[in-house]
């Protein structure tokens, strides 16, 4: 019993001292950078839905995100984690002023191969609810994409564009999306 108490006291002392060497970060490691409530609003033409609906349709991603950037020992960006429970993803028709979409509480984890430099490759994993348009018409689960860095925010956060889906698992609507979106966006 005394041995267990001695071990417990030793562990408590180790934790109280900051974990000793076990919990210490290497002196040369670059600490993560965190950005809270970064606002964004992207509107991208959706050529496929525009053709199917017969009027212009845009994909709109808007909200505030929290971003954490992680670096390797040399200070090179290697990973980004974005969270934003208030993000919305919708389809919008300027000609009618109507939109259809939902909140998209998801986490995006991006691994960078070129330090997040413009034009370099990345792999992005999106997990959570991407969109819910109607009962049974939802996109939720995990999707992994090849991506490329296309720009940077004023804070220096890389902006990526998905170029190819690598994998998808979860509940993803496989029906005709236009049959749901076009009537919701059409005229009065």
Question: What do you see in this structure?
Answer:
- The protein has four helices and nine strands, in the order H-H-E-H-E-E-E-E-E-E-E-E-H.
- The longest helix has 15 residues.
- The N and C termini lie far apart (79 Å).
- The N terminus is likely disordered.
Features:
188 residues, alpha+beta, nine-stranded antiparallel sheet
Describe the secondary structure blueprint for this structure.
Blueprint: H1 2-16, H2 20-23, E1 33-45, H3 47-53, E2 58-71, E3 77-83, E4 88-93, E5 98-103, E6 106-112, E7 121-134, E8 137-152, E9 158-172, H4 178-185
Antiparallel strand pairs: 1-2, 2-3, 2-4, 3-6, 4-5, 6-7, 7-8, 8-9
Main beta sheet strand tally, sense and closure: 9 strands, antiparallel
Mean pLDDT, all residues: 86
Number of strands: 9
Give the terminus-to-terminus CA distance.
Answer: 79 Å
Uncertain stretches of 5 or more adjacent residues: 1-25
Please outline what is shown here:
The protein has helices spanning 2-16, 20-23, 47-53, 178-185; strands spanning 33-45, 58-71, 77-83, 88-93, 98-103, 106-112, 121-134, 137-152, 158-172. The protein has 188 residues and is α+β, with helices and mostly antiparallel strands.
């Amino acid at each position: 019993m005394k041995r267990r108490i001695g071990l417990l006291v030793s562990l408590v002392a180790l934790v109280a001292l900051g974990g000793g060497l076990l919990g210490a970060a290497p002196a040369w490691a670059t600490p993560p950078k965190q950005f809270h409530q970064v606002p964004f609003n992207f509107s991208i033409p959706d050529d496929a839905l525009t053709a199917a609906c017969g009027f212009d349709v845009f994909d709109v991603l808007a909200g505030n995100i929290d971003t954490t950037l992680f670096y390797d020992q040399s200070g090179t960006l290697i990973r980004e984690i974005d969270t934003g429970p208030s993000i919305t993803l919708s389809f919008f028709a300027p000609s009618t002023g109507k939109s259809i979409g939902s909140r998209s509480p998801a986490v995006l984890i991006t691994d960078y191969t070129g330090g997040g430099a413009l034009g370099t490759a990345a792999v992005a994993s999106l997990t959570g609810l991407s969109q819910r348009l109607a009962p049974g018409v939802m996109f939720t689960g995990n999707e992994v994409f090849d991506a490329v860095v296309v720009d940077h925010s004023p804070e220096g956060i890389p902006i990526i564009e998905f170029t190819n889906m690598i994998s998808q698992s979860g509940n993803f609507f496989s029906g005709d999306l236009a049959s749901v979106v076009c009537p919701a966006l059409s005229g009065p």
